[in-house]
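Supplementary Methods. Inverse-folding protocol.

Structures were first reduced to a discrete structure-token string of length 260. This string, shown here, constituted the complete conditioning input.
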């Protein structure tokens, strides 16, 4: 492992994640796990991650889940209901986890991207709920709210070819009015995609079904443990978002600032 502490001197800063009340009105059972990793590397050998992803793909293929029954999985069914409630057709715009499962069933495997993305995809297949890795080096905060329609969204792989979200759809947005997701977790922006050079990363684990708390907490602790080979010792910090605790700030000293 490379010596990370010396590589990221000066990168420590506060970072806030806020889910607005309107989001909890749409998804009252929403529970979100956050892992703030200010010092990570994607450049180590990831044989174990590749093996884990292949194992989870095979688990999906060996299961009784078929393309027309993905929507019956409890976690996916809950996401479909939530998507419908903010005006999105889930059959056309499935949540990130449903898209992954569908691709495995249809094509047998997922594209290999990089260590951290592959790891998130593997765990997402395991628990059947969206998990994302976000490069936050150019972002100071993320607010999850309904779109007004004037926020700029840059699709992955595009250069200055911005889209604008439909008013009312749920998006991740920063204070510069840059949207970093479309239709909640259907698509991620090019600005926060994780690459092999990313070093400051926020991981999100989201669920909206009745048992979301149990699933999200267990998954967050599992992902945090699996991140240890790729992070500076003790640098990752965890938090959980829910209706009674909608805002969390990770402070620049590595601890947390709590919000009620």
């Amino acid at each position: 492992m490379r010596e990370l502490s010396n590589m990221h001197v000066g990168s420590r800063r506060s970072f806030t994640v806020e889910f607005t009340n309107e989001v909890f009105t749409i998804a009252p059972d929403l529970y979100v796990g956050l892992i703030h990793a200010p010092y990570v590397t994607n450049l180590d050998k990831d044989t174990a991650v590749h093996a884990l992803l292949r194992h989870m793909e095979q688990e999906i293929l060996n299961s009784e889940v078929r393309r027309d029954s993905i929507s019956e999985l409890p976690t996916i069914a809950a996401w479909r209901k939530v998507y419908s409630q903010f005006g999105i057709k889930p059959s056309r715009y499935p949540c990130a986890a449903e898209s992954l499962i569908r691709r495995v069933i249809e094509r047998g495997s997922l594209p290999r991207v990089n260590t951290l993305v592959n790891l998130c995809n593997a765990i997402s297949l395991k628990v059947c709920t969206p998990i994302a890795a976000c490069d936050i080096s150019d972002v100071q905060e993320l607010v999850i709210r309904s779109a007004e329609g004037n926020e700029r969204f840059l699709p992955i792989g595009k250069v200055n070819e911005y889209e604008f979200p439909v008013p009312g759809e749920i998006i991740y947005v920063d204070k510069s009015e840059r949207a970093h997701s479309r239709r909640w977790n259907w698509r991620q922006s090019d600005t926060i995609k994780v690459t092999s050079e990313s070093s400051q990363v926020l991981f999100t684990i989201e669920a909206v079904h009745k048992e979301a708390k149990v699933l999200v907490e267990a998954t967050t602790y599992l992902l945090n443990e699996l991140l240890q080979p790729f992070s500076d010792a003790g640098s990752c910090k965890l938090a959980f978002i829910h209706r009674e605790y909608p805002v969390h700030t990770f402070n620049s000293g590595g601890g947390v600032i709590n919000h009620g």
